[in-house]
Each structure stands twice: as C-alpha cells, then as structure tokens.
Fold this protein.
Amino acid sequence: MIKKTISVLLILLSISILGIAQNTSAKDASADKNLKLRGVAEIGFVGVLGNQVQFSKGGTYFNYVKNGGQDNLFPINRLSLELEIKKRHTLTFLYQPLRLESTAVLIDDLVVDDLTFPAGTGVNFLYNFPFFRFSYMKELAPNNEKFDFALGASLQLRNATISFESTDGSLFRSNRDVGPVPILKFRTRYKPHPRTYTEMEADGFYAPISYLNGSDTEVIGAILDASLRQGLKVTDEVGVFLNLRYLGGGAVGTSDDGPEPGDGYVKNWLHFGTVSVGFIYEFAEF
C-alpha cells in the first residue's frame, strides 16, 4: 500500500511540474525561481521503549511492553512533502502511519472500561495511532552556506484507535479519538560539505489546558517528535539519509464524548524509538 501511495504521489507531482514547465516560455524559465518541492519517504523499524494505557478510573494501567506483546520491533514508514518558498519559508505536509498489532495471554486480570478480561485469556491488541501534520517554518540564517536554523509551528491531527479483543471474540473494547494538536517546531542543519549534512529536528508541546491541546475537556497532553539525521546528496535531485527518532507523549484526563462504556477517563503515555533510512527527491525549481 505504501509503495503504491509513493508511486501515485510521485506520478501526480511529476505531471503537475511538467504541466507548469510546458506552459512556461523559455524567457520565463530563465527568470528567478522562487519555489522548490521535495518528496521525502522513510522506511525502518520502531521499538517500544514504553507504552501504558488506562481506560476508566477503575481500569487497569496496562503495560503493553511487559504484558501486551509489544516487546519486539515493528515496521514503520513516513511520507512528507516540503514546499520551499524563496529559500526563507517552508510548508510541510506529513503523514505518519503507526499501527502496532500484537497478541498475548494475560498474566493478570485486565479491566478496560468496566469490562474484565480474566487472567489466562488470549487477547488481540490493536494500538493504531497515525497522524497528519501541517507545518510552517521560517529560515533565520538564509545566507549562511554551512548552517541552517528554522523556527515555526505545526498543527497535528491525531486519529487514534485502541482495541482489546479476546481471541475467542467474546470480549471486546475499543476507544477512538480524533482531534487537532498545535505544536512548536524547529530544524537546524550543519553542512560541512556541499554533499553531506547533519540535521536535528523537533516538534513538541506540553499543554495542561484543554483549548491548547485540542481537547474539549480539561486534559493534560504532551508530544515530542525529535530526530537526528545524517544525510548525503547523491545528485542534485536525489538524497539519502539515516535517521534516529524519538517519538513520545500522551494524555491524562476525562472526556465526555459519546455514550461509550466507562467514565471517559483516559491515561496513556508512550515512548518509541525508531531507526530508518530515507530518500529525498527534489523537483526542478519553478
């Protein structure tokens, strides 16, 4: 599915760029170009450093790593588009799938929204937390040939589904949540050579107030997506990189959404580490 998505995305972008080029005269083509479009794709694995969740105040604060089968590695990928404007402003659209499926036999009773999964029950766990992120950054050192530093902000749209189902299908609980999250962002890059660079990037926020963290009730929320990247520009259009990333955060609070079972209380804190390789394609400036 991801390969098809990348292929379709690149084909559509290529058609768009070619259409612009065909409608531009030779005289216009020699003029200054202000826009540069980049496509970025990552593929790798994620290790769960910690992930605990609780649904309802009387529920179990469940440890996925110790008791839920998240003690191994899971595949991960990441897709983004970046539009650079006049070398000073960057707009980014990111899609991060994050789906962890596991199965384990419970050592102790597990209570989820007033439903008890007895010890000894086989349970299928789904922790699905993909997100979309729109970002803007302004470059603060545009004339420095070896050092870039940009500041900005992001708006992230979370799209979570967390499910527990006994392997015989008799017991089931599912929780879903969609909502926006405002985030602060920075990126810095050191270029010791025209073809190599080291980059650090982070999106993060801590919000104890509901109208800042995207909830309609009083919830404490936090997120940190921080990465360290070593890149190589293979050609003027193509680049590759190795990326180390920490992805963490969570929320604690009570929601009054819907007639779902339980009292609406949710507590979830997660800590993920990822290793990935990535590919960058820079389209012709226009």
Observations:
- Residues 2-22 form the longest helix (21 residues).
- Confidence is low (pLDDT under 50) at residues 1-30.
- The two ends are 30 Å apart (CA to CA).
